[in-house]
Amino acid sequence: MKNSNSLYVTGIPFTILLLLPSFLITTFYLKENYKTNFTVDKKKNIIEIKSGKDLKTYSLDQIESSIYNRQSYQKDFFWDTFSCYADLGYLDLTFKNNDRYFLSCFLIDITKEPIFENSKIKYSFLPFIDRTDPKLIKEKAEKQTTKRIEKLKINYSAKTATELNEMLNNESKYQKEAIIAIKEILKNKNVG
Q: What is the pLDDT of residues 143-157, one digit of tens each?
């Protein structure tokens, strides 16, 4: 009898811990897409999204970005069979007029090939809806790249033009930011 009690003590909390994220994600998806209908008619080239009483119709040409956010277990067939999160995911659909929708796996089969052209696929361990504006993420990445290039320019500024040209000739050994920094330094050295 003692062994069966230890199973309850360890098994039940482990099961709850394992299933809690899945339960939370499912709850958030249901809340997000409560009373939402999503229809794509490729023949007519339109998308209809009904949220509550509001019905909006968009042309496929009006799509700004289409990002499939999938659970990372979908990459690996082995884990797919064991994961309680494997089919969770959502489509982050943004239109040119800045309307943005998060369509969960309850509205669209997230595991199949993307239905829109030029769709991106992102994988995450737990695909909670990320409301961060993609434009802000891109701007942040561009600022970080610019900072890195400036830092590399400072590091490489003491090098001679010959050394910099040798580095350019071995371009495959360096990161993209380093090559940009080297080219900018050489351009300034040739002007001055």
A: 898 999 899 999 988
